[in-house]
């Protein structure tokens, strides 16, 4: 069954006009923001396919900005998101992307903040696949497959034998069930990224334990069901 | 969920002497692992948002971002206050409420996707206008939403509810079927009658293409929501009067799948055919396209 429950039929609560062009775009922006951490100083947004053709009319640009502010799909401030972003010091630039894309509703985000050596960067690609559902397909050049439907943990690490076992062992010991996971690396013994979707959010002690594992660089969490603090 | 078809849904409800709404709440709670009280509260909050959208659409400026649509609900209400509506006041109000919610959606207001944003006006239009007319409690209406959800669940899993997949019949058509079945139950119809209402309603929207001008959820989506609410009332009346869907409702859903699957892509939410490609539709689309962002890389 493609639709599992009553709230996939009645719902979500959202700001219009389109579940794929608006609600889905908010969720992609929000995923990127939570992964990035602080408010980005600059966000470059590149639209592809049908997103590129109709983003202004549908308010997809506004929806992405709302997501970057970590707002929910039904936040009443969404129509004013661009103003809020400017007021808070985030520069958001929109344009048409170039090159190939897998889904007609694809967006690529490049978020930056700070100056070297403390400069923070994130490149993320996502697609809005209908009814407010999304798929994150690329994080910093690593291929992933994340839905935002579950709490996600993104672990950056070196490609070395036993690293993934270390991660899954820690999750097992913490009683965490993995719903989905994907692994990608830049090259043998190089940088790698493991993205996991869990049945429940990661408790802080477990998060700490994961980040202290050998070969592990950073551990970041995204939970789109979390109530926005904004 | 223990049911896959409307026939099974009606049979299981009849066997347990339960309404579709009560049965769906029980099934939902089993599926999610959350208490029925919690699930009821979520749906109840959704109903409040629907009511708020109706009120906004009737009182506030609903001009869309494109400037193409807005305030049609208010036009209908004003006309109805001055002269007698051909539909009569009750159906006219359902139509106006449905337009109101759809216009709120088009102007970036808050709505509940039922089953999608493009068809978000029909259920609130029928529910809110009938609640006022028949004096039903909020609790009854929330159970009604669970009934509508049960019907939509069957349609979505056996056919589709998105215009990109199955045309407008899948969005507006499904919403009409859901509203008609739920209204039949709210008015005291049996589960079997509610299911007949779904089939009667769906038959009237088979083949409806999705051809939004400029790709926007505005023209003709908004007026189709208005018409949809009226059709739902008519289908419920037929079912309550004992009119049966001779072709069983599950088979009608099968036809929707067949018709939608063979619909050309230009008639499935791509704005490449239908009303979107009329001379006027094309002109509107050209005017919508502003200069590309200078930051383009």
UniProtKB/TrEMBL annotation, chain A:
Output one GO BP term. Answer: gluconeogenesis
Q: Part of which pathway?
A: Carbohydrate biosynthesis; gluconeogenesis
Catalytic activities = L-serine = pyruvate + NH4(+)
- Show the InterPro entries listed in the entry: ACT-like_dom_sf (IPR045865), ACT_dom (IPR002912), ASB_dom_sf (IPR029009), Fe-S_L-Ser (IPR051318), Fe-S_L-Ser_bsu (IPR004643), Ser_deHydtase_bsu (IPR005131)
Matching Pfam families: ACT (PF01842), SDH_beta (PF03315)
Q: Which cofactor does it need?
A: [4Fe-4S] cluster
GO terms (molecular function) for this protein are:
4 iron, 4 sulfur cluster binding; L-serine ammonia-lyase activity; metal ion binding
* Gene3D superfamilies associated with the record: 3.30.70.260, D-3-phosphoglycerate dehydrogenase, domain 3 (3.30.1330.90)
Assigned keywords, A-Z? 4Fe-4S, Gluconeogenesis, Iron, Iron-sulfur, Lyase, Metal-binding
Domain of life of the native organism = Bacteria
Listed PROSITE patterns: ACT
> Which residues belong to any copy of the ACT domain?
152-224
Q: Which family does it belong to?
A: Belongs to the iron-sulfur dependent L-serine dehydratase family.
Q: What's the protein name?
A: L-serine deaminase
Automatic annotation (TrEMBL), chain B:
Which family, according to UniProt? Belongs to the iron-sulfur dependent L-serine dehydratase family.
Question: Top-down, what is the taxonomic lineage of the species of origin?
Answer: Bacteria, Bacillati, Bacillota, Bacilli, Bacillales
Q: Which UniProt keywords apply?
A: 4Fe-4S, Gluconeogenesis, Iron, Iron-sulfur, Lyase, Metal-binding
Keyword Transferase among record annotations: no
- Necessary cofactors: [4Fe-4S] cluster
Q: Where are the residues of the annotated region Disordered? A: 263-297
Q: Does the keyword Membrane apply?
A: no
Pathway, per record: Carbohydrate biosynthesis; gluconeogenesis
The EC code for this enzyme is 4.3.1.17
Q: Which reaction does it catalyse?
A: L-serine = pyruvate + NH4(+)
PANTHER family referenced in this protein's UniProt entry, alphabetically: L-SERINE DEHYDRATASE, L-SERINE DEHYDRATASE 1
Offer one example of a GO biological process linked to this entry. Answer: gluconeogenesis
Gene Ontology terms for molecular function:
4 iron, 4 sulfur cluster binding; L-serine ammonia-lyase activity; metal ion binding
Q: Which InterPro entries match?
A: Fe-S_L-Ser, Ser_deHydtase-like_asu, Ser_deHydtase_asu
- The name under which this protein is listed is L-serine dehydratase
**UniProt domain Serine dehydratase-like alpha subunit: residue ranges:** 16-276
> Pfam families given for it?
SDH_alpha (PF03313)
Source species, domain of life: Bacteria
């Amino acid at each position: 069954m493609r639709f599992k429950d009553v709230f996939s039929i009645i719902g979500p609560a959202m700001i219009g006009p389109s579940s794929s062009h608006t609600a889905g775009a908010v969720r992609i922006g929000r995923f990127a923001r939570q992964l990035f951490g602080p408010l980005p100083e600059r966000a470059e947004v590149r639209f592809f396919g049908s997103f590129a053709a109709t983003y202004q009319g549908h308010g997809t640009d506004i929806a992405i900005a709302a997501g970057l502010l970590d707002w929910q799909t039904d936040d009443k401030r969404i129509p004013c998101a661009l103003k809020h972003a400017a007021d808070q010091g985030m520069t958001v630039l929109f344009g048409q992307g170039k090159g190939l894309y897998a889904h007609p509703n694809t967006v690529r985000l490049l978020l930056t903040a700070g100056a070297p050596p403390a400069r923070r960067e994130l490149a993320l690609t996502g697609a809005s696949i209908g009814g407010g559902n999304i798929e994150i397909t690329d994080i910093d050049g690593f291929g992933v497959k994340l839905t935002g439907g579950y709490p996600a943990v993104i672990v950056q690490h070196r490609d070395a034998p036993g690293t993934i076992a270390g991660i899954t062992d820690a999750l097992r010991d913490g009683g965490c069930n993995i719903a989905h996971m994907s692994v990608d690396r830049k090259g043998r013994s190089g940088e790698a990224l493991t993205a996991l979707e869990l049945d429940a959010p990661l408790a802080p002690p477990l998060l700490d334990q994961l980040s202290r594992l050998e070969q592990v660089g950073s551990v970041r969490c995204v939970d789109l069901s979390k109530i926005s603090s904004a | 969920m223990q049911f896959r078809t409307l026939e099974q849904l009606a049979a299981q409800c009849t066997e347990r002497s339960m309404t579709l709404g009560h049965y769906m709440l029980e099934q939902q709670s089993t599926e999610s692992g959350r208490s029925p009280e919690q699930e009821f509260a979520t749906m109840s909050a959704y109903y409040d948002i629907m009511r708020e959208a109706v009120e906004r659409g009737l009182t506030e400026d609903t001009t869309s971002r494109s400037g193409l649509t807005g305030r049609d609900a208010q036009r209908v209400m004003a006309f109805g206050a001055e002269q007698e509506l051909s539909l009569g006041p009750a159906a006219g109000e359902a139509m106006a409420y449905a337009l109101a919610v759809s216009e709120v959606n088009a102007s970036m207001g808050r709505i509940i996707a039922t089953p999608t944003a493009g068809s978000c006006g029909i259920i609130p239009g029928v529910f809110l206008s009938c609640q006022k007319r028949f004096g039903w409690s909020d609790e009854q209406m929330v159970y009604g939403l669970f009934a509508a959800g049960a019907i939509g669940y069957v349609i979505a899993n056996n056919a589709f509810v998105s215009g990109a997949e199955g045309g407008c019949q899948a969005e507006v058509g499904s919403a009409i079927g859901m509203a008609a079945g739920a209204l039949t139950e709210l008015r005291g119809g049996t589960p079997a009658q509610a299911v007949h209402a779904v089939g009667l309603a769906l038959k009237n929207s088979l083949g409806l293409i999705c051809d939004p001008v400029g790709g926007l959820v505005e023209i003709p989506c908004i007026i189709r929501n208005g018409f949809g609410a009226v059709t739902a009332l008519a289908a419920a009346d037929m079912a309550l009067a004992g009119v049966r869907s001779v072709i069983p409702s599950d088979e009608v859903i099968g036809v929707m799948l067949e018709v939608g699957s063979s619909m050309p892509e230009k008639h499935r939410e791509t704005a490449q055919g239908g009303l979107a490609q009329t001379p006027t539709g094309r002109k509107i689309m050209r005017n919508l396209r502003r200069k590309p962002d200078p930051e383009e890389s």
